[in-house]
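In the design runs reported in the main text, the only information available to the sequence generator was the tokenized backbone. The following block is the verbatim input for one such run; it is reproduced so that readers can re-run the procedure and compare outputs position by position.
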């Protein structure tokens, strides 16, 4: 329930507002009755016109032209724009509609990525070999990754929401044409029976950032009726009208009226942060996949060397078959060789799986999943890390992690919603002002001359009040917005705890991996010395016993296990560095990613 009231503070209608034309004035074709009247009318017309112009300029200044521009500085913004402009990655069958190419949807086509990798043919196996650095892998993933392409459109879509919100304050031109003819029965000489009115109107209007709504229009009407007492049965009336409505409480001022634009800008910031988060996630996955491929290939090499040692030992045992090698010893060696051959087969499969994982992330037309090739990592892994204080790492994570930044933006959105809800809870009090300049005559030129003299000027100023008695809807909306803000703050705090725990865990993992690298290196060296000692003792032994062969096989396996553990520790260490940078929100600042990002940010 609400109370409405309209109170016009002041109004004036010059010359009784609607102009009346005497028969003598019509006969004289609108000639002035005296110099004083003409000069006063002209002066009033000029003053009224100037006042209208000044008032319009003031309103236009307050309304302004709300910009929809966003800050696009930086390599990340250029990178996002390049991907959005390119659209979906071009593939042999981009949309999966070609029934003749069932695998075309999996085959990317070249799109101008620089620095093509070199593919060589192994003369022994005939397989294609690709020597790939980690920078090359990241460049291709950033340029081609379908996952990044999907979110690359979100900031551009959010930008259009800003434009839509800002368009509410654009100037609008309007017009109207109308023809009306009446034929009514009358029983009084003071009422017309037949009449027709033709109206042509045009103007402009705009909503301002303060909540004001103004319009300026010019209308020309031609009217005729059969009223016998009317001076001009056919008459033309030009009217210039200006009206402005300015809310003073509800829906008033920039804080409320720009809320939609400001929220759209914050949503655009969230979309940009989401794009950055995805780019960092994919970069981290590429780094991880690269080092896992390096680990898998080195594991394969170690296990291949282990099988070669086992086969050499089997050959030696077979060579002593006529001396002291029994069937038990021979079968012992054959079983070990077969077992290690099976392990090597599994390691080969793991190499292909790790390679496919990297190629999927790269989505590169030159080295796609459908190509039969071997990817050989060329970048040397890091075995040292720059020391950072725990508080410094936690501070960076809390400040720069994209998830944390999105949560802060959500609180800013909630703050805007609260301010709008507080404004909507107020009563409505509007200031309304209008001004009208008009003329009348028996012809169009005659009426325009009468209009130009400014004899007939009307204006009005008033207040309109609306006071809601219950107001439960708006009070509930305000409470809802306040609860949403509390939820957003609680979400931020929850995320801060999760990010801190994740950062601390990844710091400890780096420390553990770094220490393990040296431990496993020492273990591998000790195992190598032990195996060498066992092999050196073999020629001087009187006879070849099963116990000695078992010791030798165990020494070979121990060396392979230690070497694989060392390789895993190195790979885990490098992956942990990238994952910690992901938690801190600094993946794009890593050297490997920082050198790749400018390459994919240039339009092609």
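Verbatim output:
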């Amino acid at each position: 329930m609400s109370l409405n009231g309209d109170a016009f503070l002041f109004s004036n209608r010059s010359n009784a507002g609607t102009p009346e034309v005497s028969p003598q004035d019509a006969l004289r074709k609108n000639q002035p009755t005296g110099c004083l009247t003409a000069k006063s009318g002209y002066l009033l017309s000029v003053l009224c016109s100037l006042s209208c112009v000044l008032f319009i300029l003031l309103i236009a200044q307050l309304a302004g032209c709300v910009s929809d521009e966003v800050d696009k500085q930086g390599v990340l913004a250029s990178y996002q724009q390049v991907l959005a402009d390119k659209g979906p990655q071009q593939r042999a069958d981009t949309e999966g509609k070609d029934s003749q190419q069932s695998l075309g949807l999996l085959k990317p086509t070249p799109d101008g990525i620089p620095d093509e990798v070199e593919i060589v043919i192994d003369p022994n196996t005939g397989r294609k070999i690709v020597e790939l650095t980690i920078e090359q892998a990241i460049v291709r993933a950033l340029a081609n990754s379908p996952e990044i392409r999907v979110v690359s459109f979100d900031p551009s879509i959010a930008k259009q929401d800003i434009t839509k919100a800002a368009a509410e304050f654009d100037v609008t031109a309007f017009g109207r044409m109308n023809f009306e003819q009446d034929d009514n029965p009358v029983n009084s000489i003071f009422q017309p029976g037949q009449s027709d009115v033709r109206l042509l109107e045009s103007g402009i209007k705009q909503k301002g950032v303060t909540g004001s709504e103004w319009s300026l229009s010019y209308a020309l009407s031609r009217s005729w009726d059969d009223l016998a007492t009317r001076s001009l049965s056919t008459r033309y009336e030009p009217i210039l009208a200006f009206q402005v409505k300015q809310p003073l409480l509800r829906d008033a001022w920039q804080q409320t009226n720009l809320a939609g634009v400001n929220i759209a800008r914050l949503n655009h910031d969230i979309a940009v942060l989401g794009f950055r988060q995805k780019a960092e996630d994919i970069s981290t996955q590429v780094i991880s996949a690269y080092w896992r491929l390096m680990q898998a290939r080195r594991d394969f090499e170690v296990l291949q060397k282990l099988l070669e040692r086992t086969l050499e030992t089997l050959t030696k045992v077979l060579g002593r078959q006529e001396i002291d090698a029994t069937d038990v010893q021979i079968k012992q060696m054959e079983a070990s060789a077969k077992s290690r051959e099976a392990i090597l087969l599994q390691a080969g499969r793991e190499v292909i799986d790790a390679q496919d994982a990297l190629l999927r992330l790269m989505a590169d037309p030159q080295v796609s999943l459908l190509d039969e090739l071997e990817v050989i990592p060329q970048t040397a892994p890091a075995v040292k890390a720059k020391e950072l204080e725990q508080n410094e790492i936690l501070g960076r994570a809390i400040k720069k992690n994209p998830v944390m930044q999105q949560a802060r933006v959500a609180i800013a959105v909630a703050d805007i919603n609260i301010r709008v809800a507080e404004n909507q809870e107020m009563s409505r009090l509007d200031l309304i002002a209008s001004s009208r300049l008009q003329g009348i005559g028996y012809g169009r030129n005659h009426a325009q001359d009468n209009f130009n003299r400014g004899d007939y000027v009307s204006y009005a100023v008033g207040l309109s009040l609306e006071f809601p008695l219950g107001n439960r809807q708006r009070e509930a909306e305000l409470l809802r917005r306040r609860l949403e803000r509390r939820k957003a703050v609680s979400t931020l705090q929850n995320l801060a705890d999760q990010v801190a725990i994740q950062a601390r865990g990844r710091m400890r993992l780096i420390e553990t991996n770094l220490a393990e690298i040296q431990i496993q290196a020492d273990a591998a060296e000790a195992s190598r010395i032990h195996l060498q000692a066992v092999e050196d003792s073999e020629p001087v032994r009187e006879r070849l016993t099963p116990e000695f062969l078992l010791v030798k096989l165990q020494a070979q396996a121990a060396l392979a296990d230690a070497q694989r553990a060392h390789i895993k520790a190195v790979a885990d260490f490098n992956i942990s560095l990238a994952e910690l940078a992901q938690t801190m929100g600094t993946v794009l600042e890593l050297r490997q990613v920082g050198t790749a990002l400018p390459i994919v940010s240039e339009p092609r």
